[in-house]
Specification:
Distance between the termini: 23 Å
CATH architecture of one domain: Alpha-Beta Complex
Radius of gyration: 22 Å
CATH class of one domain: Alpha Beta
Family: Belongs to the peptidase S41A family.
InterPro entries: ClpP/crotonase-like_dom_sf, CtpA/B_N, PDZ, PDZ_sf, Peptidase_S41A, Tail-specific_protease
Structural class: alpha+beta
Organism: Roseibium limicola
CATH topology of one domain: 2-enoyl-CoA Hydratase, Chain A, domain 1
Largest sheet: 7 strands, antiparallel
GO molecular function: endopeptidase activity; serine-type peptidase activity
Oligomer: single chain
Helix content: 10-25%
Protein name: S41 family peptidase
């Protein structure tokens, strides 16, 4: 496993979609930081003064540990939407979740305008089956208002014993009245890779990047290559739509699975010596078969790494709508018995040296989903990273503006993007972007 850093989608999965590194990192200070340290620590006297005043004069006796935890979390969350403090319990939960199994509802969420916003429900989870949709705004949890709660507090309230019910109040754009949705909590077992035959095409969906993802991809290609005759197999559709991201090492491994050589991505921190490059090893699991990658406004973080690597190397055609635009790296720094902090430490760059932060991956072939009548008057788009308050600014050329349509029909027959990909692979339809030609990233990928 890559121990340096990992990718995290905005917010927390119900049971949290956090990705982690388990290495203890030393604290490094630059010369300028050392010079200013004495003044900075003197200013911390302000915190001590306020802390003591609250302890002595607040109307009720406060919890000292909770005061400090909230102060630490406030410092981190003021940096960007992805930095935060993890209590010992949340840190343990996160480690369990990256293994692909956790307790909860099965929704990935963020905080927007004081409410909990659903980024996407996870496939085959209680929230998914209860009809929760991407873009839903959660206003109440078991009758209690969400307004005024932190994201962490709201997530904690939505957790609970397996088999118990929770009622969430939801505002859905396009509907006049709020909805009350009852969801039964359950153990969320994430099978991150699913696959099926589409006659002469292998369809592979990766719903998130956890520790089982690469093993799942290996199994998917192995089974599909035996189920579909090699002479008949037209290629693969790799579906990364509404994939919130996950582990960095798994994103690199999935990219590597389709590449013979070259850079997969690089990460660049504040200091030049922290730059790291990750390269593919020889061997294409798909034996050079054509690949079309599906993305949309819910494709973020690790899924954008895969799409960017395969796009830059002209190994795959990217089809769908612009991705979420989360191009930052979070390092999980353990604090012993005190939990851990999740700190944004770097941006990542595609093989051609482009940062997608707050911009997203622009597909080679843009294709919108056809919406059913009941959704035509509702918003089915995500604002993306650029819509998050306090996000890291975009770097390099191009305007901010990530996010786009994130609707995926439940029935494959109604899936405009999937059916277009199948038609392209079969030659029923043609497009100048398929198959991709040349090697855009060849100069930077040696």
């Amino acid at each position: 496993m890559i121990r340096k850093a990992s990718l995290l989608l905005v917010g927390a999965l119900m049971g949290a979609t956090a990705v982690t590194t388990l290495s203890q990192l030393p604290i490094r200070m630059s010369d300028s930081a050392n010079a200013a340290a004495s003044d900075t620590y003197r200013q911390l006297n302000l915190f001590g003064d306020i802390f003591e005043r609250v302890r002595s004069d607040y109307v009720e006796v406060p919890d000292d540990a909770q005061l400090i935890e909230n102060a630490v979390n406030g410092m981190l969350t003021s940096l960007d939407p992805h930095s935060s403090y993890l209590s010992p319990k949340n840190f343990r939960d996160m480690q369990v979740q990256t293994r692909g199994e956790f307790g909860g509802l099965g929704i990935e969420v963020t905080m927007e305008d004081g409410l909990v916003k659903v980024v996407s429900p996870i496939d085959d989870t209680p929230a998914f089956h209860a009809g929760v949709l991407a873009g839903d705004m959660i206003t109440h949890i078991d009758g209690e208002q969400v307004q005024g709660l932190t994201l962490k507090d709201a997530v904690e309230k939505m957790r609970g014993p397996v088999g118990t019910d929770i009622k969430v109040g939801i505002i859905r754009e396009g509907m006049d009245k709020p909805l009350d949705v009852t969801i039964t909590r359950d153990i969320i077992r994430i099978k991150s890779v699913r696959w099926r035959e589409e006659d002469d095409v292998g369809y592979i969906r990766i719903s998130q990047f956890n520790e089982q993802t690469m093993d799942g991809l290996n199994k998917a290609i192995e089974e599909l290559s035996t189920q579909i005759d090699a002479g008949k197999l037209k290629g693969y559709v790799l579906d990364l739509r509404n994939n919130p991201g996950g582990l960095l090492d798994q994103a690199i491994a999935v990219s590597d699975a389709f590449l013979e050589r070259g850079e997969v991505l690089s990460t660049r921190g504040r200091n030049a010596e922290e730059t790291q490059r990750y390269n593919a090893r020889a061997g294409d699991l798909s034996n050079g078969k054509p690949v079309i990658v599906l993305v949309n406004g819910g494709s973020a973080s690790a899924s954008e790494i895969v799409a960017g690597a395969l796009q830059d190397h002209r190994r795959a055609t990217i089809l769908g709508t612009r991705s979420f635009g989360k191009g930052s790296v979070q390092t999980i720094i353990p604090l012993g018995a005190n939990g851990a902090i999740r700190l944004t430490t770097a941006r990542y760059y595609t093989p051609s040296g482009v940062s997608i932060q707050a911009k997203g991956i622009q597909p080679d072939i843009e294709a919108l989903q056809e919406l059913p009548d009941e959704l035509k008057d509702r918003t089915t788009e995500t604002k993306g990273e650029a819509g998050l308050r306090g996000h890291l600014e975009a770097e390099g050329e191009g305007d901010e503006g990530s996010g786009s349509q994130a609707y995926v029909p439940a029935d494959p027959k109604d899936d405009t993007q999937l059916n277009l990909a199948l038609d392209l692979l079969r030659g029923v339809k043609v497009d100048s972007s398929f198959p991709p030609m040349g090697d855009k990233a060849s100069n930077s990928a040696e």
